[in-house]
């Protein structure tokens, strides 16, 4: 038979699937995958049940139902003083993942250069390969995960179309400083490139609050802000995400969305519209619970002898391995000998080999799960 698409045939199984399989085979506690092992809030699930029973079961409008776009817009205003017109500056997608795919497809021509901070979330690279972009990685350097401004400047040329930033950042837990974003802004304005800002962990922040990239005044027009409700409501299976940006960008992103998925699960949009409009109290509890989980895991890992960083955001904590250890073999040993699964971080890098010196633990887990993992690690 004739060969399949040249690009797709090179895609490999993701490291998350590989580690999960190994965890299941070894009956290990799975702190590798980035989603909760507990359900989302029952009041939000009840809203979805009601929407299903109320007959919201046919195709939704392709841009997303207006009440959901209005709720998203109102939250940008309420939390960040950012204006996005719900009518033409927001499109609802199947999770942030689809928003990323549609945005990259809508913007990038073959040969365009795209700067990505590594370590990076794996779907960026796959989408960039499909768009036949030239991927230019810039390393966030251990131990503080700052980029080197000179390296960033050297990575940018007149062919740079787009820079992708993920803030708060998976897997490092970093929140980019205002100074770092201002440096990016200067370059974006000088070299006229777009910014794709993946902010799915916007509400999972601890000591610092999140600042959207688009709230830096000079970046508003050239930034596509992507987020979703998966992490915020612990309902990753609902896949309600969106892209927000200027009307020309959103129109182009929607052009891809209408021919990839067309629209997003209607009853879940109805529920999320109401949940997003009423989440102040929930957010307080959400942040408090995750802060406790972070502290439980980080302090436990430290007692177990790991060199762990305190993440500023996200639900991931990175541990630096002792010299001479390498992430993939370390994770395999951890699963087999200690019955705990983590993620080797080299999978998040293209250029640097710094990733082989770290592993990532996810603390979006019940306290009992975290405690059992720590017990297995010898506490
Ligand atoms: C950085 C980052 N972006 C996007 C996503 C995907 O978001 P969604 O589930 O809304 O598609 C994830 C999920 O783990 C993520 O970590």
Q: Using the 3D structure, state the CATH architecture of the largest domain.
A: 3-Layer(aba) Sandwich
Task: Report the strand count.
Answer: 14
Number of domains: 2
Kindly state the mean pLDDT as a whole number? 97
| Share of helical residues | 40-55%
CATH superfamily of the largest domain: Type I PLP-dependent aspartate aminotransferase-like (Major domain)
Given the helix and strand composition, which structural class is it?
alpha/beta
What is the oligomeric state here?
A: single chain
Distance between the termini: 55 Å
Question: Could you say which small molecules are bound to this protein?
Answer: pyridoxal-5'-phosphate
Enter the CATH topology name of the largest domain.
Answer: Aspartate Aminotransferase, domain 2
Query: What gross morphology would you assign?
Result: globular
**Strand order, biggest sheet?**
2-9-8-7-6-3-4-5
Relative strand content:
15-25%
Name the poorly predicted regions. none
Largest sheet: 8 strands, mixed
Q: Any overview of this molecule?
A:
- With 379 residues, the chain is α/β, with parallel strands linked by helices.
- It folds into two domains: 8-39 and 281-376, Aspartate Aminotransferase, domain 1 (Alpha-Beta Complex), CATH 3.90.1150.10; 42-279, 3-Layer(aba) Sandwich (Aspartate Aminotransferase, domain 2).
- The chain is 40% helix and 16% strand.
- It contains twelve helices and 14 strands.
- The longest helix is centred in the C-terminal third of the chain and has 24 residues, at 280-303.
- The model has no long low-confidence stretch (mean pLDDT 97).
- Pyridoxal-5'-phosphate (PLP) binds next to helix 4.
């Amino acid at each position: 038979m004739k060969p399949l698409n040249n690009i797709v045939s090179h895609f490999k199984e993701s490291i998350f699937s590989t580690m999960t399989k190994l965890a299941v085979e070894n009956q290990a506690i799975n702190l590798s995958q980035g989603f909760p092992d507990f359900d989302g809030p029952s009041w939000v699930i009840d809203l979805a049940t009601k929407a299903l029973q109320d007959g919201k079961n046919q195709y939704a409008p392709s841009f997303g139902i207006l009440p959901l776009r209005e709720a998203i817009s109102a939250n940008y205003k309420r939390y960040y003083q950012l204006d996005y017109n719900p009518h033409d500056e927001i499109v609802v997608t199947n999770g942030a993942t689809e928003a990323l795919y549609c945005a990259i497809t809508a913007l990038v021509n073959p040969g365009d250069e795209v700067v990505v901070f590594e370590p990076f979330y794996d779907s960026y690279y796959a989408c960039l390969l499909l768009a036949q972009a030239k991927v230019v990685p810039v390393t966030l350097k251990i131990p503080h995960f700052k980029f080197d401004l000179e390296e960033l400047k050297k990575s940018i040329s007149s062919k740079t179309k787009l820079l992708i930033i993920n803030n708060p950042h998976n897997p490092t837990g970093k929140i980019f400083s205002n100074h770092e974003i201002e440096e990016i802004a200067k370059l974006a304005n000088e070299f006229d490139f777009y910014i794709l800002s993946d902010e799915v962990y916007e509400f999972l922040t601890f000591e610092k609050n999140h600042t959207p990239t688009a709230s830096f005044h000079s970046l508003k027009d050239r930034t596509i802000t992507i987020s979703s409700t998966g992490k915020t409501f612990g309902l990753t299976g609902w896949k309600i995400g969106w892209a927000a940006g200027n009307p020309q960008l959103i129109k182009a992103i929607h052009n891809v969305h209408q021919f990839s998925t067309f629209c997003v699960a209607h009853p879940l949009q109805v529920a999320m519209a109401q949940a997003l409009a009423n989440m102040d109290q929930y957010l307080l509890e959400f942040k408090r619970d995750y802060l406790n989980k972070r502290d439980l895991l980080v302090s436990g890992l430290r007692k177990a002898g790991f060199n762990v960083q305190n993440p500023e955001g996200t639900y991931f904590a990175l541990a630096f391995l002792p010299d001479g250890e390498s992430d993939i073999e370390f994770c395999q040993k951890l699963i087999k000998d200690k019955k705990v699964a983590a993620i080797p971080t080299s999978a998040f890098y293209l250029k640097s080999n710094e990733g082989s010196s770290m592993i990532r633990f996810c603390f979006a887990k019940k306290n009992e799960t975290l405690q059992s993992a720590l017990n297995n690690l010898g506490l």
